[in-house]
Amino acid sequence: MRLEMNQVAGKTCKYMLILYTILCVIYTAHYFYVSYTGAHHDIYPRARDPNELTAQLQQEPIHHPAPEQAFEEHTVAWSNAQGTVHPISEEFIMSKVFANAMGPNNMIPFFYRAKTQFDQEDITMATLVTRNRFPVLARLAANYKGPISAAVHVNDDDTKEDVLKELRELYAENPAMGEYVDLHLIVDNYDRQFNMWRNIAKLFARTDYIMMLDVDFHICTDLRHSIRSNAQVMDMLRSGRTALVVPAFEFIAQADGEDWHTFPTSKDDMLQLVKDQKLDMFHRGWQKGHGSTNYTHWYESDDVYKVTKYDFSYEPYIIYKKEGSPWCDERFIGYGANKAACLYEIFLSGIEYWVLPDDFLIHQTHRYPEDTRRKERQYNRKLYSNFREEVCLRYARKFYASGEWETSRAENLKSECQRIRGFRSTMMTSTSD
């Protein structure tokens, strides 16, 4: 009798275990179906081999979503090497990623994705675009014929549908847009969040190196070839410790800068225009903005050279490594100091600025809203003054904590931050045991 009872109990436990297993399988299948059907991002485990992931992405078809279908909610799945998956709404993640920006924002990465599969060591033009600059973006795509990551801002009002229609027409009319431009859409009512837009363009760039470029500048030379064919310069970029400066110019007579077809395409032709006093450094009336490039030296140079007289108002156009470089501070809203603050932090982080000897940009003339610029500059000037102190102290603490204070990485910070009143005493207090 006792033996029979044990056999019955054993069978019961066996059947219950089988039933439990079946229920677990059904529940798991239902969970994944509910969580990952509809519009979502593919799940790529964070522990996956990057080479394997890149190969898979290159084999996938490229989709150009219809704008009216692109505003669906998306899910991002985080996973580990054991396959544990945690889904989070993309909107929630982006609110953290851009926590210092004004919000909420409706941000759609890869609203249009370029057909071309880019070489990992190519240089992406990371730029920001508003509605009145769509034709300029199309010209950049046709001229550069390389990867472009464009953050496009659209006001969330009754003009939105018209703007989206213009974007569709832009891609339909210009094959270079579809070939080379990854377009990331920001839909909100917050104008001139320039640093946030720069961060979006950088975040979703698909190559190792980016150029922080204002879309109004025309690339006059084949800088991709001159950089990628130079082993020394490529090694400097790969190190993550170098940002390459591309000198910027503008025509003295603004009317001369309206037709990019007339721009010089070689350094010799450009130098002749400088001698003829038709061309000069960009914003020559504001020497602090580009003077550190040392244009006098550039005119005679045939090799890269280091920027040695840095100014905190310096605003060059740079090419640098995407991974490991600082992001632009998103508290700077509107005109004035936004780009300078971004470049200042890059410099303090230990990245040196080196000037390319043969490549250059020329500004394409357009009208500036001077009244708006003047008011916003007043506010951002105050913000930048505090920001400089803040970022000096933050990176100084970082270098002390990581043991890099006595290395070359801290040299930029030491030379620049010692000019700030009270920095030395503050450092001694904050780092003392």
Keywords:
433 residues; Rossmann fold; 4-stranded mixed beta sheet; 9-stranded mixed beta sheet; alpha/beta; single chain; 43% helix
A few lines on this structure:
The chain is α/β, with parallel strands linked by helices and 433 residues long.
Structure description:
With 433 residues, the protein is of the alpha/beta class. The chain folds into 2 domains: 87-214, Rossmann fold (3-Layer(aba) Sandwich); 216-432, no CATH class. 43% of the residues lie in helices and 17% in strands. The chain has 16 helices and 15 strands. The chain has helices at residues 2-36, 50-59, 90-97, 134-144, 160-173, 175-180, 194-203, 223-228, 231-239, 267-275, 287-290, 295-300, 338-348, 370-402, 411-417, 423-431; strands at residues 75-79, 85-89, 106-112, 123-129, 148-155, 181-188, 209-212, 217-219, 242-246, 248-251, 279-281, 305-306, 317-321, 352-355, 361-363. The strands form 3 sheets. Strands 3-6-5-4-7-13-9-14-12 form a 9-stranded mixed beta sheet. Strands 8-15-10-11 form a 4-stranded mixed beta sheet. Helix 4 (134-144) links the parallel strand 4 (123-129) and strand 5. The termini are far apart. 31% of the residues are buried. Mean pLDDT is 85; it is low at 30-69. Pfam families: Glyco_transf_49. GO terms for molecular function: glucuronosyltransferase activity; xylosyltransferase activity. The chain crosses the membrane at residues 12-33.
